[in-house]
């Protein structure tokens, strides 16, 4: 079976079934002593285009998307490890600007690797510590679903052939991690990411679109684009965060608009 048929979730399921990977059900890996580790790669012409984004913004983005996984783990970040592959003709000044952008995220870069390649590939590993990682598997019927901020900004920006800076929700993540039953970041679209909670928790997540806060210029269709990097949590009490849905007995995700079913897709790797 090809990856286009299997999909990202199917691939991870197959690797997990074979015992080739373990403990990958959450946004980040939780190790002994409260250490939390995550890694994300940005590939030119897959995740970004250099005619749409500058080097500094690319650097900040690479750091921020990894820190978002730490935020979803309630972690305090400690370090970044960066691997960069780039064409030999890339200007050194551009690479300096790239690293300056990563530094703007406020977490030190302590190591990594560099390599020549035909296009730019930027892989960042983020390391932090958390006293409690809610993960995806603890959502309970009767919970409400909350987000930390408006969604759809990334989709709206993409329609304008540009990018927006991902938010850093580390403070909100630590707050939510103290009481959330499940917690992750919205990177693949709210329906897809709610599906991760539903699947791992054995529940049904209901998203009520009229309650979802939209970023300026965003439409409901932009909610399926992903890359918003706000946090989505299943909690018994909203804690003052915007409520966007609920958790019920059952399975899967139900997306509603004023009580009626609404088709909302999300980002599917390998599709």
Query: Approximately how much helix is present in the residues?
Result: 25-40%
Which sequence of strands runs across the widest sheet?
7-9-6-10-8-11-12
Shape: globular
Determine Rg (CA atoms, Å): 18 Å
Beta strand count: 12
Description:
The chain is of the alpha+beta class and 271 residues long. The chain contains six helices and twelve strands. The protein is globular, with a radius of gyration of 18 Å. It has helices at 3-17, 55-71, 92-103, 153-159, 170-177, 190-201, and strands at 29-30, 35-43, 76-86, 109-116, 121-129, 144-147, 182-185, 204-208, 231-235, 243-248, 252-257, 260-261. The chain has a seven-stranded mixed β-sheet. Strands 1-2-5-3-4 form a five-stranded mixed β-sheet, with helices on one face. Strand 1 and strand 2 (35-43) form a beta hairpin.
Question: Summary?
Answer:
The protein is of the alpha+beta class and 271 residues long.
What secondary-structure arrangement, pairings included, does this model have?
Elements: H1 3-17, E1 29-30, E2 35-43, H2 55-71, E3 76-86, H3 92-103, E4 109-116, E5 121-129, E6 144-147, H4 153-159, H5 170-177, E7 182-185, H6 190-201, E8 204-208, E9 231-235, E10 243-248, E11 252-257, E12 260-261
Parallel strand pairs: 3-4, 8-11
Antiparallel strand pairs: 1-2, 2-5, 3-5, 6-9, 6-10, 7-9, 8-10, 11-12
Helix pairs in contact: 2-3, 2-5
């Amino acid at each position: 079976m090809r990856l286009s048929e299997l999909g990202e979730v199917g691939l991870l399921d197959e690797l997990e079934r074979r015992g080739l990977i373990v403990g990958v059900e959450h946004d980040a890996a939780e190790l002994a002593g409260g250490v939390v580790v995550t890694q994300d790669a940005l590939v030119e012409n897959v995740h970004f285009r250099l005619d749409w984004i500058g080097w500094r913004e690319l650097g900040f983005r690479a750091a921020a998307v990894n820190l978002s996984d730490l935020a979803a783990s309630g972690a305090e970040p400690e370090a970044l490890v960066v691997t960069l592959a780039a064409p030999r003709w890339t200007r050194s000044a551009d690479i300096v600007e790239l690293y300056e952008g990563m530094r703007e995220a406020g977490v030190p870069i302590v190591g990594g690797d560099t390599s020549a390649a035909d296009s730019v590939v930027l892989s960042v590993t983020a390391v932090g510590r958390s006293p409690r990682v809610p993960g995806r598997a603890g959502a309970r019927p009767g919970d409400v679903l909350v987000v930390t901020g408006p969604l759809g900004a990334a989709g709206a920006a993409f329609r304008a052939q540009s990018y927006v800076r991902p938010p850093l929700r580390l403070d909100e993540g630590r707050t939510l991690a103290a009481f959330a039953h499940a917690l992750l970041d919205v990177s693949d679209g709210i329906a897809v990411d709610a599906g991760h909670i539903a699947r791992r928790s054995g529940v049904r997540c209901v998203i009520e679109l009229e309650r979802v806060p939209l970023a300026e210029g965003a439409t409901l269709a932009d909610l399926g684009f992903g890359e918003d990097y706000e946090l989505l949590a299943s909690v018994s009490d909203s804690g003052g965060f915007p409520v966007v849905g609920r958790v019920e007995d059952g399975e899967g995700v139900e997306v509603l608009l004023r009580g009626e079913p609404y088709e909302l897709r999300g980002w599917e790797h390998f599709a």
